[in-house]
């Protein structure tokens, strides 16, 4: 069960599970094209991920990798740039050579038709190239999206194999700009060719939410407004912008984290059981949840911006405005708490609290369901509320905070937990990186963990009025200290809408006791 | 979990159990052990009193008086008990202090004058006139009548309170048990009678109420809509080991099922009581029992262990090889019975009671198996959820559930949410069942003791079956020493709806 599988076993099982034998032919040739091969994302994430998948035998055997960018590069130069991020062991040297032997690089201009014709000719010239399936990864700034997608469509589509296009955020900056982009994309590609990445959907525990909810009878009857008092979705980072605030400042924490990652988790927690686990059945349900959420109002939001902690060390001394790349006097939020309500039969009245921020006291992403008080309590109000926590990172875990008899000669309730910490239980299982899963999904043609156009539209619909109001009125975010819990106003808000924080309990790693 | 100091424990305990008002702690208490020379006294009662004493959990002015037929001394009792008392070197002073509170009187159980003598002995102890008296009947049932009558007639404190602790057997069927109860209720009031079922003193059995009624999580699923079946298990890995003579008079149903397992069933099935007061709780337990019809013979499998020729030592010997067991005895050493609680919450849900000797393991547990997920979307790959409360050994609560198979997969796989006491509560020693129960008697808390009407209902449920077995001299199904018991039992369990997949093995997560 938890034994590590050999490479070929994993591959066999994977194929059985994911690759539909009908649709997928291991022997087919695939070409993976990285647009923006010279950039940071390509170097740090995409090339390394492709390498890990390649070395683990998870990619189809005949796969070629083609880099494309403006710079005048070589495969060797790319290799040198990527090496620090690829975690290559000495025994893998041969495999690494095999990987790079399948790599080529073409330089060209994103707006230039001829460059893409050249790219296409290059692909056709690869062994099996004319029949190959093509995967285009757009690791590019949004400014060139229009040109590149148009050129791919016009010059680089395979006529015999399939074509899939992977797109990274930002998907616009509000409802209108996002709709424009979507309209543009849908004029070029069909929805089943478009793979919008939200890398949170590639995380082990986020993917687990569906199995936990719909594979366990015990959660069925309590997963609703009768039993759930509130849901808290949290993303915390312990560091600030560290000199890269210029990019961040254009977006802010709501666009960067809340509107995508946290809202996606909300959908998975709140959605009804889909008709099946097929991608579109699942995404239909997620969209349905979003449609029931009215736009967030300013009164249910707390915004913050971190300031330096004079007692801190190093970066902690620096506030957001001390980042030289951040415009002077910026009112951009680095912290936000927002309360959303899902107005449907299951969730009416239950607050969904979305919290995210930079430069906070810890690194943590989690989903927390707090259950209602026990009705008709017989233990003198000594029972705390039950909570089910799914910790996404770090240290993946599921635990249920619950009451148990205080051990010994007592008969009073005491807080404890039922625990499943992945590190302890699954000693030898390596959890793949989110990008590994997602890129694999693109090969398999599984769109479940990608964002569909209508999902994206609804997500922007919910946040755009708030974002416009913030952009227009420029309310001053509440300053909070680097390394703190964020502004206390956020705790007040959370409390006001119904989350109860007793502070009487601290999670204990039972394996360190 | 910081371990508490002795005085902290004591303080908390007093707050929690003694109730600030009725803190009778300063007054004198006399604990009288009737049958002080017997096995139970030596192995269990004296040691338990010692542990409570050394931990400062007994009232300060405590006297312990032994009474039996033999001509004994405190010294001899001390010598007999010491091997069972786990005394460390640093405790020797405390041990002397303990035995200083002891005295011993010999007398006859059926002679009034012996008890008059006992009474004057009690009255002459310092503070004895006004002391509260606790009588522990560690005696064979044959002398219950005499002793209880004599206590009532000669030994009752008129200024302090009196409490009488009884051990099973409480009769052997409905009629005999009713006779005993009628006799006792002539002599004592219900709030003076403490019938011990030591399972009610176990940590995890006591936890059942907190788990059920302290957690919102369990409220909505604790019923026939979500629970497919409940399995209550008691397994011992050894046979009668030469003491089958006593056991043969009772059999496994009377010995384990009708009391221990049925008590656990009550705690699982009962409605939430109005409060945690003992009578509110016991009212609810009785109500459950009243909704249980006597089991039909077709819902019962009986077994008797046979020697395992491939086994070693004791395992080679079957029940009938025990020289103290009557030749050709049909007494069951294993039984599985299915009960139904015919009320709104549980109608149709099988409560499976399984118990036996000479089985493959030592285990007592409560297992709720939940229904299948309706409208499954994972191609029938989900196993049923189970909530398991392991009573012994290795106290634990765990929830068998499905999780995404870790890694690049998206299929469900079995796992569990776990609370193993040993790992979580490193420094907490769980008191022995007798310690808790004797402490409860001092505190006057009857929650964990069996009330007369509970006992009556328990016998009502099992007496028809027991009479039928005995009248028909039904031959139990032989099973091999060290096995899982007769396979017919597994068939029965499966037939009534428990699903055993065998795909999952509990893993001790902290050693893997």
From TrEMBL, chain A:
Protein's pathway: Carbohydrate degradation; pentose phosphate pathway; D-ribulose 5-phosphate from D-glucose 6-phosphate (oxidative stage): step 1/3
Domain named Glucose-6-phosphate dehydrogenase C-terminal: residues: 210-501
Taxonomy, superkingdom: Eukaryota
Reaction catalyzed: D-glucose 6-phosphate + NADP(+) = 6-phospho-D-glucono-1,5-lactone + NADPH + H(+)
GO biological process: epiboly; glucose metabolic process; pentose-phosphate shunt, oxidative branch
Pfam families, per database record: G6PD_C, G6PD_N
Cited InterPro entries: G6P_DH (IPR001282), G6P_DH_AS (IPR019796), G6P_DH_C (IPR022675), G6P_DH_NAD-bd (IPR022674), NAD(P)-bd_dom_sf (IPR036291)
EC number: 1.1.1.49
GO cellular component terms listed in the entry, alphabetical order: cytosol
Keywords: Carbohydrate metabolism, Cytoplasm, Glucose metabolism, NADP, Oxidoreductase
GO MF term set: glucose-6-phosphate dehydrogenase activity; NADP binding
Subcellular localization, as worded in the UniProt entry: Cytoplasm, Cytosol
Domain Glucose-6-phosphate dehydrogenase NAD-binding intervals: 33-208
Keyword Zinc assigned: no
Its biological purpose: Catalyzes the rate-limiting step of the oxidative pentose-phosphate pathway, which represents a route for the dissimilation of carbohydrates besides glycolysis.
UniProt record similarity statement: Belongs to the glucose-6-phosphate dehydrogenase family.
PANTHER family in the cross-refs: GLUCOSE-6-PHOSPHATE 1-DEHYDROGENASE (PTHR23429:SF0), GLUCOSE-6-PHOSPHATE 1-DEHYDROGENASE G6PD (PTHR23429)
Identification of the protein by name: Glucose-6-phosphate 1-dehydrogenase
Originating species: Poecilia formosa
Automatic annotation (TrEMBL), chain B:
GO molecular function: glucose-6-phosphate dehydrogenase activity; NADP binding
Known pathway: Carbohydrate degradation; pentose phosphate pathway; D-ribulose 5-phosphate from D-glucose 6-phosphate (oxidative stage): step 1/3
GO terms under cellular component: cytosol
InterPro entries with a match to the protein in the record: G6P_DH, G6P_DH_AS, G6P_DH_C, G6P_DH_NAD-bd, NAD(P)-bd_dom_sf
EC number annotated for this UniProt entry: 1.1.1.49
Subcellular location: Cytoplasm, Cytosol
Residue span(s) of domain Glucose-6-phosphate dehydrogenase C-terminal: 209-500
The entry's keywords: Carbohydrate metabolism, Cytoplasm, Glucose metabolism, NADP, Oxidoreductase
Coiled coil: none
Pfam family name, one: G6PD_C
Catalytic activities: D-glucose 6-phosphate + NADP(+) = 6-phospho-D-glucono-1,5-lactone + NADPH + H(+)
GO biological processes: glucose metabolic process; pentose-phosphate shunt, oxidative branch
Record-linked PANTHER family: GLUCOSE-6-PHOSPHATE 1-DEHYDROGENASE (PTHR23429:SF0), GLUCOSE-6-PHOSPHATE 1-DEHYDROGENASE G6PD (PTHR23429)
NCBIfam families: zwf
General function of this protein: Catalyzes the rate-limiting step of the oxidative pentose-phosphate pathway, which represents a route for the dissimilation of carbohydrates besides glycolysis.
Listed name of the protein: Glucose-6-phosphate 1-dehydrogenase
UniProt organism field: Poecilia mexicana
